[in-house]
Amino acid sequence: MDKKTPANKGPLSGLKVIELGQLIAGPFAAKTLADFGADVIKIEPPAKNGSQSGSGGDPLRQWRMIKDGTSVWWQVQSRNKKSITLDLKQPEAQEIVRSLARGADILIENFRPNAMEGWGLGPDVLQDINPQLIMLRISGYGQTGPYKDKPGFGVVAEAMGGLRHLTAEPGRVPVRVGVSIGDTLASLHGVIGVLMALQERNKSGKGQVIDVALYEAVFNCMESLLPEFSSFGAIREPAGSELPGIAPSNAYPCADGAYALIAGNGDSIFKRLMATIQRPDLEDDASLKQNEGRVKASKKIDLAIKEWTSKLSCEQVLIELDKAQVPAGRIYTVKDIAQDPHYKAREMILEQKLDSGENLMVPGVIPKLSRTPGSLRSAAPKLGEHTLSVLKELGLTDDQIKALKDKGIIGNHEAKYS
Asked: What is the pLDDT of residue 1?
């Protein structure tokens, strides 16, 4: 934990969350709640022979780059959580989930529709046990509709939601954004739903089910795509680095081979931009005073800006545009992010210690709350690290826990992980 980040209870302190599912969408939503103080118990499938790696646990533990046997991504996605292991296909494990749900506020799952019902853990069962329970269900296509039973990953949802078609240079193969944006958007919509359901529960005393589909979360962010089609029959096409219908806003090449991103599309900003690049003819052109006129002349405007940027380094371009109060920036790599003073000043680069003693940089907590901010309170858990303590809190005896171990319903985790 970064020493500058205060460990506080957070605005969601006292809320109990059960996290089911794996990988990105459900766990990211739970991570967001955990960052702000919620007590999150993550349920994972047990590993064989109590192993901390391999076939058991959330597959994210082994995704991408591995350090000390565990993905460094895991350290971000599962911070501030507890981990217990349960084989949800076994009746005894299902009963434990029902016992946990009895005292929980929120349950998050991102299995295929009807998987929970097949285990006797659907809303009809869990909300009968606990009428105040809020269930967040994230899936590719939602809990209803003709596609509900199809497997759905974020990359497919991004395509169906309309995003993938636009992420390309004209005439080129559409590319993915580069991160699992569909999953993350669904997670954030899910968190919004949870907070709204909690507010409503304060009035009614009742929980409810939140149904988030990955493709709908993407579609919800597609701005004017649908109404433009409805009114004009317009199908927006890929435009590369341009922002169609808004000008000027593009990436412009500089003398050092870098690109400057310049957004000069505000009316007064455009005039300042044209003055900076010494184009009074465009600055004073009455037809370019508003966006509609600039869009029609976007090619001419872009060419004028490009002629200016191509004679200067990216740093020189940004210095001049900062003086003129024109929004502009360069394209950051993660190295740029890690070294940027503004990121550090805003506590967006935190550090946590791995078991090896090495410091790992991790993203900070957002949004920033003035009085009860979120915090990084604990590192991501080992597989099943809290199984014994959670089961004992439920009232299970040592003999009952041993029987669960013997049947493989929970992992055979060593006491040091309890």
From this structure: 43
Tell me the C-alpha distance between 171 and 179, whole Å.
Answer: 23
Q: What are the φ and ψ backbone dihedral angles of 373, each rounded to 5 degrees?
A: -70, 160
Cα–Cα–Cα angle for 32, 34, 40, rounded to 5 degrees: 125
Domain that holds residue 179: 16-220+339-417
Known catalytic residue at 183: yes
> Domain containing 345 — which CATH number?
3.40.50.10540
Strand pairing partners for 251? 261
pTM above 0.85, yes or no: yes
Strands 359-363 and 349-353: antiparallel
Domain total of the chain: 2
CA atoms within 13 A on the CB side of 266: 9
Residue 53: the pLDDT is 46
Residue 33 shares a structural domain with residue 168: yes
Q: 207: helix, coil or strand?
A: coil
Is residue 324 located within the same domain as residue 202? no
Do residue 43 and residue 79 come from a single domain? yes
10-residue mean pLDDT series, the chain (418 residues): 55 98 96 98 84 71 90 95 96 98 98 96 98 98 96 92 93 90 97 98 98 98 96 93 91 97 96 98 97 96 98 98 97 95 96 90 96 94 95 96 94 52
DSSP assignment of 307-343 equals HHHTTS-HHHHHHHHHHTT--EEEPPPHHHHHH-HHH
Compute CA distances 32 → 36, 37, 58, 271, whole Å.
Answer: 7, 9, 17, 42
- Residue that finishes a domain, picked among 282, 310, 330: 330
Task: Say what the pLDDT of residue 316 is.
Answer: 98
- The answer to whether residues 349 and 304 belong to one domain is no
Residue 377 has what DSSP assignment?
-
Residue tagged active-site, from 183, 284, 322, 355: 183
8 Å CB contact between 417 and 385 = yes
Contact between residue 201 and residue 195 where contact means Cβ atoms under 8 Å apart: no
